[in-house]
Task: structure prediction
Amino acid sequence: MSDTQNLIHLAVALDGAGWHPAAWREPDARPLDLFTPAYWVEQVQQAERGLIDFVTIEDSLRLQSDDPLEPDLRTDRVRGRLDATLIAARVAPVTRHIGLVPTAIVTHTEPFHLSKAIATIDYVSNGRAGIRVQLDARADTNRHFGRREIQPLRREDVANIHAPELQQRLRESFAEAEAYVEVLRRLWDSWEDDAEIRDVATGRFIDRDKLHYIDFESRWFSVKGPSITPRPPQGQPIVAALGHATVPYQLIARSTDVGFVTPHDTTQATAILAEIRAEQEAAGRANDTIHVFADLVVFLDATHEEAANRKQRLDAQAGGDSTSDALIFTGTPSGLADLLQEWHAAGLSGFRLRPGTVPHDLAQITDALVPELQRRGAFRTAYEATTLRGLLGLPRPANRYAAIVERVA
Amino acid sequence: MSRPQKQVHLAAHFPGVNNTTVWSDPAGGSHIEFSSFTHFAQTAERGKFDFLFLAEGLRLREQGGKIYDLDVVGRPDTFTVLAAIAAVTDHLGVTGTINSTFNEPYEVARQFASLDWLSNGRAAWNVVTSWDAFTGENFRRGGFLPQEQRYERAKTFLQTAIELWDSWKGDEIVADKETGQFLATPEAGSFTHKDAHFDIAGQFNVPRSPQGRPVIFQAGDSDEGRDFAAAEADAIFTGHAKFEDGQAFYADVKGRLAKFGRTPDQLLILPAATFVLGDTDAEAAEIAHEVRLQQVSPATAVAFLEQLWNTDLSGFDPDGPLPDFDPVVSDVGGLISKGRASVRQFAKDPIGLANQWREIAAAKQLSAREVVVEVTGRQSFVGSPDTIATAINRAVQEDASDGFILVPHITPGGLDRFVDTVVPLLQERGVYRTEYEGSTLRENLGLAPVASSQVLQTTA
Result:
């Protein structure tokens, strides 16, 4: 498709009132509306007006916490959230072009349920669904389910994360995620596209030879299949994951269509890309397109000074400098456009922007950054496809179970 | 007999993956495209129905070791399609059947709480149990529960979910921008639950939803199922649509409420009902027979015989007599049909049932297919709009039900004529709403609000 123009792809990461812990205290914030459907519909429609490729929606199976290992018991931050997959489903009928990529925690959920949930969002949205998979091996989350023996990370483990035994544990956790994605994908393919035949003469609704058991076996779960939901419009909805190190990069390389990474400069961006591409080749996927997006937290205003002052004010309200795994960009839309173009030239496909506050920084993205990138000829001026795969320049894949590959994108 | 007229409740069951649904009709549309759900839901809302109902099946049915291909196959995921339906409706309740065997309370509770938020208070949960290792093969949990543990797990699952919903009282979010206090207490959502099935603790992460909790439905018909409903449910989804059956069921279940400290107005009894409308009763009867023949194609007739006889009957002539040998008796695990609850009825006494079928065939001179047409799935209501309105109203006024969950046989247009012709007649008679009374499903069902401190009524 048309990636020959090599335009920048943009995603927006939605989470609560924005990514700054004090975002909910901004004059334009609506913290009491965070759990209403209208709040989410408005944000996604705003992103769609900005021709954004897709939104992601954060999720967790626990209350948010600033502490990486246990509840923080804070009362000065947004706490509580709605199921991201259901938010995506609720928003789908009232949007037309933008991709919808909720987060799912794979550690405690059933791949069979998630596969049909994402397939259903793909039907409801006519081909705009994706899923971002995330692990959660925290002890507090595990107590909410009480079913698994999980060896949670301890504080000394975090400091010692590069030790061989910890790396081995990490590899095992990510191997489960890889198995989970494999089940999602096999279930999406478990119906061939033309399985529904409605043959009145023989009384058959389906050609059952075009439905397939997936017979997946692993040490964590086995799933028989086929799915109860027919193959979704995109064939394979988009799978994404966020990674900060080699083991998650392997998951990105082996299992996903889009990886989110967190370089802090061009050199790091180049190095991460090289690592992912090498893993991709090692996984036998050298010919597949895997988009790598850099995550950035953004505070945008007309002048650098305004943005810096706002960030400073927010930090003061939050009780200290806010930190992030991703680079925090504080400045003008034009300055951000410079950075995006530089990193894009280094090989990144696009960027997942985490607005510091909503609605302000979301509006800055759609109403200032996007027009600036368009002026530079670096971003689309209209939606060029009707599916998320189409927006990302990915063909509709052949079905792994189909005897004859007849579909060409 | 001068009590005030009861109000009729109506709801719509999206056509299911069984032979009630006539996919072969030229008007039969997609069962998976969202446009079908939109049409169906908006028609129900135009008819001022209380809610849309979705059944559940987590493994495709099989017969003789092969995927069953004669009925509609394929359906969407329940939670996500209900959340999407909430986007194209304003008043209609969204009721999902979700089993308590292949899910965990924390996840189901947050999905229903989220659905309740995203529908502005219109979510309902039909709590069911799954019964077979066959379905379990699609899940981490695998396995299954012995029959006697199914209700125990369902009951404790529901209790746990209610504890999670009640872990937020509704006043925790203060979001005071001046003081910087978002939560009134760091303990919001705290819970601890320990029993034979669930040992969990922590904090629930969805604040109290508009209804407090979803409206709770129960669908089991056994003695245990009826007690479960009488103790815990807000509404029952039953198969007792026939008038006399309905009255007996209604009296039985409403009679059980007192022992759980509840009153008859706290539990609605809503049988599933099929219908065929005609301009006249005679025309409706003719159409109903045609529909039955569509529902029982020659191949479907043989499939039904295989389910009862529990053996391969390929090559059998459905237009000839019933098989002249007796059914193969087997326990549930050995049945030819997998993933279909109805065959468990067949399996109880297959030889006795086959003899009944033979008597009917002999008395009425019927072929095998005609017997299947006769003994399975007869429509609940057949007639002109006036006849059907009268029958529905009688059933409600004379305590055979509190209303009906209608199951049309055509997707997605099967409700259209009912809404256009029967609903106005019920409205004229003053027994059916002309506008929605409330904004939540609970309010429209006439149920009292859930108090945040309400303690679950547990079975003695």
Remarks:
- DSSP finds twelve helices and 13 strands in chain A.
- The domain at 2-136+238-391 of chain A is CATH 3.20.20.30 (TIM Barrel).
- Chain A has one domain: 2-136+238-391.
- The two ends of chain A are 9 Å apart (CA to CA).
